[in-house]
Amino acid sequence: MTSRPSVWKRFPPQAKTTDKGHGRLERRQIWTSQVLNRYVDFPYVKQVFRVERVVCNLDGTKQRREVAYGITSVPAHVATPAQLLQLNRGHWGIENGLHWVRDVTFDEDRCQIRKGTAAQVMASLRNLVIALLRLAGAANIARELRHLTRHIEKALRLIGL
Q: If you average pLDDT over every residue of the chain, what do you get?
């Protein structure tokens, strides 16, 4: 018995990218569709998509393949498949730019504040500090925090005091 190829594989991908860096080669492909919109029970759905990532070392070893499916409220005339693929790739910027800073610089995972909404308030304050420092042009949040602890007048100016 022969297996049928996935519906997505019957059509060529609508956009592809290949990136080389950190000793790896990463190839991404995307398929998008508006045909499923009326069948997907999700508010404001405008497109569904399938992203396939194939990552391997530059010498071709250790190949890993990932497939992710997504739903977006962005219509096809606003975001082309190539733009959706770029947005999908860019989502790691959030992980690296915010979550990593919160986890490592602020050591958020070990925070023991748990009463009421205090944990949410502290997370909001951390996000506010990161946003203020980014707006002020800080490339390295940890270094800037160390600097501001020694120069309290600069910290006060940053918040408008």
A: 87
